[in-house]
Specification:
single chain; 555 residues; alpha/beta; four-stranded parallel sheet; 20 helices; 37% helix; binds (2R)-2,3-dihydroxy-3-methylbutanoic acid; binds magnesium ion; metal-binding; ILV_EDD_N; EC 4.2.1.9
Length: 555
């Protein structure tokens, strides 16, 4: 047992003495596996506010199953609350803090197994990075999604309705009472925001990764059934430990393909691209950004969920859940189903009895929204190392967009330009120097993308950036442009009035300016001064790599 390192033999008498002092261990417990419970209880995030009780529930179930649990907690940033100010620059960097702190706890104390309890955006990938890095047997069980909201008129709502509501209010489309109605009804319970945003995308992908149990992504946080899922995860970790099945046995290269396949079928958040690449990197898998397009080309887009439609995670759950989508992909022969998962069964066995019960919410593979996936990687002279767009959340019928560049060197300036009407139909809004290094921290831009969508301009204005988006972003929004402007990427060479063309069919993003002119501009380009000079963000900016490699830190 790994934990023998801290509990067996004469040299470990002091260690045992300390373990007894915790009140959690008796001498008769020493032969039992020590299980870490990596929780993320934080009470400013609605997706995490209920996790203190969940931690207790999981620990009780571990004891019942014959293990000794020890709980520790990670930090967590609420992306919604951190949106639109300096707070958002800490969001992506928090992923590395979470991975590093989980690794620290697991390796310092030699746990035999771990139950990870994540929920919101960076907590799930941070913990997954730690899981494959430490490679200690584990099971993941997330906090669960929020119930969908309803306006006083009965219209379905999610957090995106409030962000877009701000744009609608500022442009006079709704009044203060209507905005207040959205604000007060969009987020009715605890749980991760109710659409296919980043948190839920990652929590659904874990079902396909086989590292979480079926229903992990869609069973709402408030449901009694979710309690059974927490207890079952605790029981399953004991089997994973007994059989020594490790995260890297479960998460292999083919399984990374499968994660992207589900992402394509359900139109996951663009952030999943960053996170899954980072997880692959930690697992020692060399996975390129280009490979995602190969998956996209063979996987149909089956489920349009908010922000691409009005359907919530609850609707997906009631329509058969993620297992029903996976079953379609298994039957279509586009994933690798004969591999082990934390249920102790194969993926094929996990989904054998799954059924689509509502074909409005989850379409069958012979009637997809599109024969290709909901996410796309674009290349071109503006993004030699790639860029990402959620094509599934672009208005139907738009396959390309050409417009005139309007340039902003920060998100704040762009927000002002959209709010004061400087941004007009036909514009391609360029927001640069907001990448992993330049931001620093590659902030999510839900405020400007919602301001455009809320004004009803989402088919007439495009937005391109080296920053990133929320899962709730919709419209012609291209993010993760690599290399980023602060590193000398061509995005920094765009001038107001330049023509930019985005072609979704050809997966291209081009600046319609000659190579000779671009070379001239490059010769006079100066790298910007770092925006943050001290603290974690300054350290992060020095170590972070490009978005096309998942924004992982250099070792
Ligand atoms: C606040 C949101 C909607 O959770 C966003 O952070 C996302 O990435 O989806
Ligand atoms: Mg987010």
């Amino acid at each position: 047992m790994r934990s023998d390192m801290i509990k067996k033999g004469v040299d470990r008498a002091p260690h045992r003495s300390l373990l007894y002092a915790t009140g959690k261990v008796k001498p008769t417990d020493l032969p039992k596996p020590f299980i870490g419970v990596c929780n993320s209880y934080v009470d400013i995030i609605p997706g995490h506010v209920h996790l203190r009780e969940v931690g207790e529930m999981v620990k009780e179930a571990i004891r019942e199953a014959g293990g000794i649990p020890f709980e520790f907690n990670t930090i967590g940033v609420d992306d919604g609350i951190a949106m639109g100010h300096i707070g958002m620059r800490y969001s992506l960097p928090s992923r590395e803090l979470i991975a590093d702190s989980a690794e620290t706890m697991i390796n310092a104390h030699w746990f035999d197994g771990v139950v990870y309890i994540p929920n919101c955006d960076k907590i799930t990938p941070g913990m997954l990075m730690a899981a494959v890095r430490t490679n200690v047997p584990c099971v993941f069980v997330s906090g669960g999604p929020m119930e969908a909201g309803r306006s006083s008129k009965g219209q379905p709502l999610s957090l995106t309705s409030v962000f877009e509501g701000v744009g609608a209010y500022r442009s006079g489309k709704i009044d203060e009472t209507e905005l207040l109605d959205l604000e007060q009804n969009a987020c009715p319970t605890c749980g991760s925001c109710s659409g296919m945003f980043t948190a839920n995308s990652m929590n659904c992908l874990m079902e396909m990764l086989g590292i979480a149990l079926p229903w992990n992504g869609t069973l709402v946080a408030t449901s009694e059934d979710r309690h059974n899922l927490f207890r079952e995860a605790a029981r399953r970790v004991m089997d994973m430990v007994a059989q020594n099945i490790r995260p890297r046995d479960i998460i292999t290269e083919e399984v990374i393909d499968d994660a992207f396949a589900l992402d394509m079928a359900m139109g996951g958040s663009t952030n999943t691209v960053l996170h899954v690449l980072a997880i692959a990197h930690e697992a020692g898998i060399d996975y390129s950004l280009e490979r995602i397009n190969e998956v996209a080309k063979r996987v149909p887009y089956l489920a349009k969920i908010s922000p691409a439609s009005q359907y919530s995670m609850q609707d997906v759950h009631n329509a058969g859940g993620i297992s029903a989508i996976i079953k379609e992909l298994v039957d279509a022969g586009v994933v690798h189903p004969d591999r082990i998962t934390v249920t102790g069964k194969t993926l094929r066995e996990n989904v054998a009895n799954a059924n689509i019960t509502n074909e409005q919410v989850i379409r069958r593979r012979d009637n997809p929204y599109s024969p290709v996936g909901g996410l796309s990687i674009l290349y071109g002279n503006l993004a030699p190392d790639g860029a990402v767009i959620k094509v599934g959340a672009v208005a139907p019928g738009i396959t390309s967009f050409e417009g005139e560049a309007i340039c902003f060197n920060s998100q704040d300036e762009a927000q002002e330009g959209i709010n004061n009407g400087t941004v007009r139909p036909g514009h391609v809004v360029v927001i640069r120097y907001e990448g992993p290094k330049g931001g620093p921290g590659m902030p999510e831009m839900l405020a400007p993308t919602s301001a455009i969508a809320g004004r009803g301009l989402d088919t007439e204005v495009a937005l391109i950036t080296d920053g990133r988006f929320s899962g709730a972003t919709r419209g012609i929004c291209v993010g993760h442009i690599s290399p980023e402007a602060a590193e000398g990427g061509p995005l920094g060479l765009v001038e107001p009035g330049d023509r930019i063309r985005i072609d979704l069919t050809e997966r291209r993003i081009e600046l319609l300016v000659s190579d000779a002119e671009l070379e001239k501009r490059r010769a006079s380009w100066q790298p910007p001064q770092p925006k943050v000079q001290s603290g974690y963000l300054a350290r992060y900016a020095k170590l972070v790599t490009s978005a096309n490699t998942g924004g992982v830190l250099k070792v």
